[in-house]
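PROTEIN DESIGN WORKSHEET
SECTION A - STRUCTURE
LENGTH: 74
TOKENS:
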């Protein structure tokens, strides 16, 4: 999220921006929506307004293999 905001490619509820601390994204929930795509990449889904303004739609993030190597086995 931070990388996208800094690159001007997104607007997420993260610390350091215009959003209050209560509005900011803090962590992924234990029951967070996710799926494995056709390339077996982990994709994390967020509902509209959950981590960003409605103009961002329903954000999804592909987690690269290196980042998930210690938490997910296929």
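SECTION B - SEQUENCE
RESIDUE ASSIGNMENT:
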């Amino acid at each position: 999220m931070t990388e996208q905001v800094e690159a001007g490619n997104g607007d997420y509820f993260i610390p350091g921006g215009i959003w209050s601390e209560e509005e900011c994204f803090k962590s992924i929930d234990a029951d967070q929506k996710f799926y494995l795509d056709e390339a077996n990449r982990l994709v994390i889904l967020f509902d509209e307004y959950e981590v960003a303004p409605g103009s961002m739609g329903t954000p999804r993030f592909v987690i690269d293999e290196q980042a998930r190597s210690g938490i997910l086995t296929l």
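SECTION C - NOTES
Helices lie at 2-6, 65-68.
The domain at 2-68 is CATH 3.90.640.20 (Actin; Chain A, domain 4).
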